[in-house]
Amino acid sequence: MSTSLIQKYNIPGPRYTSYPTVPYWKENGVDALQWEELVRESFINSNQSEGISIYIHLPFCESLCTFCACHKRITKRHSVEAPYIETLLKEWDLYCGLFPEKARIKEIHLGGGTPTFFSPQNLKKLITKILSKGELVDNFEFSFEAHPNNTSREHLQTLFDLGFRRTSFGVQDYDLKVQKTINRIQSFEQVKQVTTWAREIGYQSISHDLVFGLPHQTIETMLGTINLTKELKPDRIAFYSYAHVPWVKNVGQRGYSEKDLPSADQKRALYQGGKELLDELGYEEIGMDHFALKSDSLYKATHHKRLHRNFMGYTSNKTELMIGLGMSSISDSWHGFAQNLKSLEEYTESVHRGELPIFRGHTLNHEDLVVRKHILNIMCNFETSWREESLKFPELGECLNRLKEMENDGLLIIDHDKEKLTLHSYARPFVRNVCMAFDLHLLRKKPSTRLFSMTI
Fold first, then answer.
1. Total-model pTM
2. What confidence tier does 31 reach under pLDDT thresholds 50, 70, 90?
3. What is the distance between the alpha carbons of residues 435 and 128, in angstroms, rounded to a whole number?
4. If one looks up domain 25-325 in CATH, what number appears?
């Protein structure tokens, strides 16, 4: 890709884990009664056919990784574990009270924070009690995120015995200068140890998270990290673009300045060099930011056009209903979204009052649902079609016109006869820009302040 195209299209834009994106939701956009009705309706539609998904946010970390923009609580006091688990289970009880029958659980994902901050015994208590209120569907998938520094073999064995078969280890970068800057110091030997344990225990999919664009990162250090990673050959690699958003509350990114970051051209070189090396190692590019070996379920889902994207990221499973448990967690009923309170104290108080702890959300209208399908198609398959009447909407022509310049720049093809849009494989880094052309909320109300990270 030419430098001029990178400069042209490298603008702030959403990552499209949802449509509409979170900034276009409103506080009280979904009240408790509306949300309960949306959950019941979605549960009835999906429980017997595909089951439901559960995302559990475990927010505690012992130290602050300064590159991270997630909702977390920094503490070394592990006495916080038990009260938080009790609150999670009470929240799950509130949802189970809405369901007309036992939930059939297809997917559980533990995110954070640092899920392995919690002891194996407490994680076992949490998962066992959640499963006691439901039943498992065939081919269920449980996964969790883990910090190599505090993940023990007992963690891995305990979660494996509970049904977890996929884990992702946050690596980011092996260069010591980069690690010190982002306050995330871990050795290759530590990552190798936990990866080896996971394989010995029997995990079917092991992922490593790498980040490009970090402060003081160079093409040499990035390729060095990938060359070390190839020795361990994880089944998946998430190759994320660092999102520099120091204006967002509760992030530590003010500990370094933009002059410490790679330039736009250097960052693109990091991505391109990393991608080429991953290609050489046999990884296939999946959606945005993700690479997988052909033996992995994520690749197979892509090959069969079954890839899905939600607040857990890319997944080989799709469920209409995803329940988010924990502070700041987001739930998706397909026809609506709801986010939990971000403050640990407010979240806890709400649950213990017997109230679902949501503070904002969005109910999707017909237009939202149609556009959401197009954006999911583009993010998962790098193409979309409007041949079916149900995928047409009044502003479709305007959306396609906005993409004419990208077509002229050789990034995509708009086939009006076949009523189909397709990105070229080399243009995948521009996928967020393509989605922005369909984002009617963004087009109607451009943000007056900077909300999003750069697209490339």
1. 0.93
2. confident
3. 40
4. 3.80.30.20
